[in-house]
Amino acid sequence: MVTLGDYLIVSGILFAIGFAGVMLRRNLIIILMSLELMLNAANLSLVAFSRFHVQSSGLPDYNIQVFVFFIITVAAAEVAVGLAIIVALYRARQTTDVNDIKSLRF
Amino acid sequence: MVSHYNPPSAIRHPQSIMPPFLFWVFALLMLIFGVAVVINRNPVASALSLVVSFLGLAALFMSLDAYFIGIIQVLVYAGAVMVLFLFIIMLLDLRAEERRRVNWLTLSGGIAVALALLIQIFYVIGHLRSAGQTFPSLARSRFDDVRSVGLLLFENYNLPFQIIGVLVLVATIGVVLLSKREPR
After folding, report:
1. What CA dihedral angle connects B47, B49, B53 and B55, to 10 degrees?
2. Which of A87, B114, B140, B166 is 20 to 30 Å from the Cα of B154, by its Cα?
3. What are the residue ranges spanned by the domains of chain A?
4. Cβ of A42 under 8 Å from any chain B Cβ?
5. CA nearest A32 in B: which residue?
6. How far is C-alpha B153 from the geometric centre of its chain's CA atoms?
7. What is this structure's pTM?
8. Fold of A4-100
């Protein structure tokens, strides 16, 4: 049988993969994708807790699923803004490599 | 929540709709393609790996009886967000990164920090009392989770819902402002 711990471990490994991507990669777009991986790892553990915490009505805890819904919405908005910033940066500097972006002023 | 369904009593609600074998298949699929996102040099390949990873994650959501969240995951991430990523990659015309000299110090340092984080997560989960328990069975084998989530969203969480709407509006205006060319 699959336990709660299995879901949490899978979610933890996914979070660590995203974290390693943020630490290791130099491309801003890949860093943004790794951030998405980390957000989704958090979502997975939240949904696992939702299913684990069965209400007295015998249904999963839907409060957590509403929270996950909000997280997905905010993440979508964050991706849009982040990609717009990357495009603006690319217009100014012609690069998406974080190593080439060192100074605070243009 | 009132259910309009009368589940046939012959169908006993399973522990989870998915057998453990499928859970491991989808978890491995998600993790392998998650690694592929990080190690691919070509951004387009990374984005496509991310799609597969998110599809595996949506399957895991459905294995937890969260069908609404799973569908939203496919629609929003595998649909909208990934189209946005691919569109930007092609707009910027990014090529695969040229193979640069690997700085072994930074590489091993990054992997070490990620491994340390992983070990901490395992330690915490290992000390969680309920980590070894299986999921309790549900009272009904069929239920309408869209209705339940929607009722909660519009009754208990109405104000946060409105605020999320404003946030999306602000993000839209911000994106348009950011991507507008400055007059010179």
Report:
1. 80
2. B140
3. 4-100
4. no
5. B85
6. 20
7. 0.88
8. Helix Hairpins (1.10.287)
Q: Buried (b) or exposed (e) across B91-118, using 16+ Cβ within 10 A?
A: ebebeebeeeeeeeeeeeebeeebeebb
Residue with tokens 């193979």: B99
Residue type, A78: E
* CB interface of B with A, residues 114-153, below 8 Å: 114-115, 117-118, 121-122, 125, 128, 130-136, 138-140, 143, 145, 148-149, 152-153
Q: Quick one: which of B110, B170, B13 has its CA closest to A26?
A: B110
Domain containing B37 equals 14-95
| Interface ipTM | 0.91
User: Which of B1, B132, B157 has its CB closest to that of A5?
Assistant: B132
Please say if the pLDDT value at position B15 is more than 60.
Answer: no
Domains in chain B: how many in total?
Answer: 2
pLDDT bucket at B12, cuts 50 / 70 / 90:
very low
Tell me whether residue B149 is in a domain: yes
